[in-house]
Amino acid sequence: MDTTADIKSIAIIGAGTMGQGIAQIAAMAGYRTVLFDIEKDALEKALKSIEKNLEKGIEKGKVTQEQRKTALGNISAVTDLDEVKADFIIEAIVERLDVKQKVFAELERINSKKTILASNTSSIPITQIGAGLKHPERFVGMHFFNPAHIMKLVEVISGAATDDKTAMLTKELAENLGKVAVMAKDSPGFIVNRVARHFYVEGLKVLEEGVAGMETIDTLVQSSGFKMGPFQLMDLIGVDTNFSVTTSMYNSFYQDAKFRPSRIQQQKVDAGHHGRKSGKGFYNYE
Ligand code: NAI
């Protein structure tokens, strides 16, 4: 792509917590939006959630009926990766290097030489993901925040091989999607997740050491001005995703003890208590 005006279509890979919000803003900004997931159920859930968000927007007077109709008309949902052809592709699947690399290699093979590939990874270095590509110069980090249709910030991360033009187009696209883009260096967790990691890790340590219970920790943190406490926020993010991010950062920083993942969180993941999306996490949502 030479300019953002050349970007007419955006594909989102993964229709989970983040993919659905990113698809919503892409469709609302007028892009032909392709939403892909390996799970049909995940796509159905995502489309319902987008509809619900748009309805809420109408109730609040922030979205018109016409905008809702146009946005929903712009989205197509697919389970066949061969159908994912777009000018700009944003990946939001499981936080695992091997899985991401495999999907990107396939996307690169089936798409045009001009397509820009972006990852919404929270913690895996962009240089590492891009190393599996033939053209890492067209690969970039585009890190949205949860909920993606509301939070304004996007970190744009250049890997060692990312072209400056790719990074600038990504920044401009983020702005066209109504976001505020910040350029970040390629370092584990980039800016926000690196700083915020201690919010979760330390909260879990306080719980593990029996200093206080999770409701007390959440209530106290909230009363000191935060919108959510660490356990409420892990449930919103996805306990599994949050755990993968901590594990990936711990390993990327050569087992620096300050990022060590918690066994309590490991148990939640093993039990399938992944937070709001699974109906149960640290709290119960059923
Ligand atoms: P999620 O677990 O809610 O959703 C992931 C989706 O990807 C699922 O629907 C799953 O079926 C699908 N998926 C898994 N493997 C796939 C594959 N090989 N091909 C296609 N689809 C596949 O995950 P979530 O939370 O949306 O995270 C996705 C990415 O976004 C991760 O890299 C995460 O680090 C990042 N992220 C997450 C944030 C959060 O608050 N949850 C915030 C910012 C970034």
Quick structural overview:
The protein has helices at residues 17-28, 40-59, 65-74, 97-110, 126-130, 164-176, 192-208, 214-223, 230-237, 239-252, 263-270; strands at residues 9-13, 32-36, 75-78, 88-91, 116-119, 139-144, 153-157, 180-184.
What topology emerges from the helices and strands here?
Blueprint: E1 9-13, H1 17-28, E2 32-36, H2 40-59, H3 65-74, E3 75-78, E4 88-91, H4 97-110, E5 116-119, H5 126-130, E6 139-144, E7 153-157, H6 164-176, E8 180-184, H7 192-208, H8 214-223, H9 230-237, H10 239-252, H11 263-270
Parallel strand pairs: 1-2, 1-4, 2-3, 4-5, 5-6, 7-8
Antiparallel strand pairs: 6-7
Helix pairs in contact: 1-2, 1-3
The protein binds 1,4-dihydronicotinamide adenine dinucleotide (NAI).
How would you describe this protein?
The protein is 46% helix and 13% strand. By secondary structure, it is α/β, with parallel strands linked by helices. It has 2 domains: 4-185, Rossmann fold; 194-278, Orthogonal Bundle (N-(1-d-carboxylethyl)-l-norvaline Dehydrogenase, domain 2), CATH 1.10.1040.50. It has an 8-stranded mixed beta sheet with strand order 3-2-1-4-5-6-7-8, sandwiched between helices. Helix 1 (17-28) packs across helix 2 (40-59). It starts with 8 loop residues before the first strand and ends in a 16-residue tail after the last helix. The model has no long low-confidence stretch (mean pLDDT 97). Bound molecules: 1,4-dihydronicotinamide adenine dinucleotide (NAI). 1,4-dihydronicotinamide adenine dinucleotide binds at residues 13-19, 37-39, 42, 92-95, 99, 103, 120-122, 143-146, 237-238, 241, 245, 277. 1,4-dihydronicotinamide adenine dinucleotide (NAI) is lined by residues 13-19, 37-39, 42, 92-95, 99, 103, 120-122, 143-146, 237-238, 241, 245, 277.
